[in-house]
Amino acid sequence: MTITWTRITVLAAALALTPVAAQAQQPVNLAMATLGQGSAWYIYGATMADLLRKTLPAGSNVDVKPFSGGVGNAKLVARNETPIGLSFTVTNRWASLGTEAYDAKIDNLRALVGGLDTYYLVVVAAKKLNIGSLKDVKDRKLVVKAFSQPVGSLGEFAMRQLFREYGLSYADLKGWGGSTTHVNYNIIVDAFKDGRADVLVAVATPKHPSISEIATFTNVRFLAIEPERVKGLTALGYKPATMPADTFKNQPQPG
Known about the structure:
By secondary structure, this protein is α/β, with parallel strands linked by helices. It is built from 10 helices and 12 strands. The chain has helices spanning 14-22, 40-55, 72-78, 89-97, 134-140, 154-165, 170-175, 185-193, 209-217, 227-234; strands spanning 2-5, 8-12, 29-34, 61-68, 84-88, 110-114, 119-126, 145-148, 179-182, 199-204, 220-222, 239-241. The radius of gyration is 19 Å and the shape is globular.
């Protein structure tokens, strides 16, 4: 069983956009918060920026920022540090309620565009660990080098939430001799190829190129997420879904 985010939503602070509308015939400068270079979100941002440059007044500039991800972008927009940012429906919910990744309600965000893609929560593990679930890590107190995308991304925060469902923490892994590392995909891919990574927790589109590369060129398996753990995540706003078999290599069963 996997958890899916049915849609990506683009968020913007209404106050941040008002001056742009008022100066429609004058060149404007926009910034869009995405995620690290090479990520799907950065590509989305670059594509949107190209379209906007063609329709905004001559001399306008759209700057695509390679940060900070599904959790952090809402905070950047709310503080008017950037007028537009990509985000997830589930993180938007937390932001509006002031729960989970947010310690206060954020009420100056507006959804502009939605329906861009579908994302799944996936757990990938090196086959040498001989585990079928994160429960095995907890029960056997395994020495595990776990990776995610950087802090500020939903991938990293979802790893914390998923660990919590299993009664795990970053401190537990460190105490057993393991580690947690939060970096961009190019580093994660190399770490798996070099044998320096054991587990990856990620939110990913079907056929995600970096996860496809890991699944193709390293000996890994996709771990199950038990129904009870799915139930706990669903209570946070995630939507249960089954990722079709063979979405990735080494994933012969629906997940």
